[in-house]
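We examine the record.

___
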Amino acid sequence: MNINKDLEKFEKWYETEPFEDFVGPFFYKKNKNNYISAFECKDHHLNAMGTLHGGMIMSFIDYTMFVVCLEAIKKQSFVTVSCSTEFLNPSINDEIIYGDGEITQETKSMIFVKGKIFNNQNKKISTFSGILKKIRSK
């Protein structure tokens, strides 16, 4: 697989993740104080209007929520129990799509997160909020 030069400093979460590899692949890296996710937008990610498909954005948001919470979830297993998405702008001819966010609250069994999906010019494509639930310790 040829990796876009803008993604060379990113890494994959798992060696193999069938769904994410199929729809993505998705990547992440640690920035100064947080984690950021990314993927290369290609023709098969677009809808009939030539913009990034909403379902692709939502799949990427799910991945991004886990990336945002990476430090908090390292020793446990979590699942998404809620995710709200606001579509703000179409993504047209954007080569790399990014996501980031923050944990807004953490309990013993849940993590609440919010964030944004954006392009190379830092234009917001969508915002999101969601909840991850701990299902067991590793």
